[in-house]
TrEMBL record, chains A, B:
Domain RNA 2-O ribose methyltransferase substrate binding: 19-97
InterPro entries, per the entry: Alpha/beta_knot_MTases, Ribosomal_eL30-like_sf, rRNA_MeTrfase_TrmH, SpoU_MeTrfase, SpoU_subst-bd, tRNA_m1G_MTases_N
Organism: Teredinibacter turnerae (strain ATCC 39867 / T7901)
Keywords: Methyltransferase, Transferase
Pfam families named in the record: SpoU_methylase, SpoU_sub_bind
Protein name: RNA methyltransferase, TrmH family
GO cellular component labels: cytosol
GO molecular function, one term: RNA binding
Keyword Transferase tagged: yes
Domain of life assignment: Bacteria
Entry annotated with the keyword Methyltransferase: yes
Amino acid sequence: MQDSPEYLARKKFFNRLLTIYGRKPCLEALQDKHVQVYRLHLSESNKPAPILDEIIALAKARGAEVLYHDKRQLSHISKNSKQDQGIAMDLVLAGFTEHEDYLADFTPGEHTFIALDSVTNPQNLGMIIRSVCASPATALILPRKGCAKLDALVIKASAGTLFKAPVIRCDTLMSCLQAFKTKGACVVGLALDAKTSLENESSAGTRIYVLGNETDGISPDVSRLCDEQLKIPMRNGVESLNVAVTASLIAFRSLLRQ
Amino acid sequence: MQDSPEYLARKKFFNRLLTIYGRKPCLEALQDKHVQVYRLHLSESNKPAPILDEIIALAKARGAEVLYHDKRQLSHISKNSKQDQGIAMDLVLAGFTEHEDYLADFTPGEHTFIALDSVTNPQNLGMIIRSVCASPATALILPRKGCAKLDALVIKASAGTLFKAPVIRCDTLMSCLQAFKTKGACVVGLALDAKTSLENESSAGTRIYVLGNETDGISPDVSRLCDEQLKIPMRNGVESLNVAVTASLIAFRSLLRQ
């Protein structure tokens, strides 16, 4: 039963859903033309309010299912009864894939992946999603653990690209990188003190570039998994670049090299 | 008198000063090891407070002059009596030059400049300063009119690089670009609908890349001054990149091309 094609297709679909909550965040998401809405969840206890009418109208116009729940059920869906304001919404992240599904169909070749290790600032995460989506890079590898939560701030900073960006999801970066390595991928850690500099790196084959936390860099466990280390050379004694800028330089590099 | 070498040197020095105000912004600036402090201005009416003691101690340790003024004088210095909280500070922007001074000594050659036309978000401005400072680009051209004010937000987003970044100051971008053009510079406007794409552009000589406002792009007057237009190609139907990301890709391009 759990291996039937229907079950697996359903699981894949539900893995692509992002649940957000709160009246303003839901309204703003619906005002973004890139958003795909699957379901709108409302609490039966909501008192009438113009913002709710607006949300319901927009959701229906997008073809979303509108469901009513009791307060307790809604808090199960939003997972945040204190801040959900009686509303939650399932959005479809069309470009999201679980790393097991991705690797099952993966053909090694010339691939650039950007992987994030504890990037906690939602603005940086949103900008990285936007840049990787626009760039020639194959996909972004985004672990559930350690990175900024996908929320209204990330959606905004991504300029709506969150809903179409190619993103490979995993629980922890460690297990995902290990799985990619068995497929022949080379894991490259961005490090300020690396010996190899961007302009001298040979970048053939499947390469995963790991970017670490804004303050602490790559975590020791992930660092040990790296096959190579790489730095971006900097002038004027600048110590580091913004992590979203670093991700963008790597993601667009193949284009700039031509 | 107004043309004496002493007068001109003094004028150059004062053009490099940035006055900030408010207790928290001044303390945070002093906690940044990159900051150069010229003078600390205090109102005689300030009541004793631990944060003031801390600020005075840090400013003295950096060799800054500490001056006391009456409230009215201080508001002349801070230019914001409502928010100065009885304190202002003159910081030295070591890499700043007025465009007239810069062009007087300018030798045409292989130069990349990034010029900003109404970039109003302080975080974007700070990130651009940080990236240009670290990059092989020659300098950032930053007009006083239209762009975000240099304040505590910009300092923070620049990660302290504001105090050493090579920045050419002008009143308006128009007059500065015109002056550069008389020296043979080519002005290139970044535009989403440009025909020439980054990977096909020949980038010899002195080139000034103009980046426009986050929402509206380059203003019509500046656009008419551009000799060429350039776009960054984008995949997945992404409409635009963050302006700081665009600036970084242009600024680091010569490095990535090698």
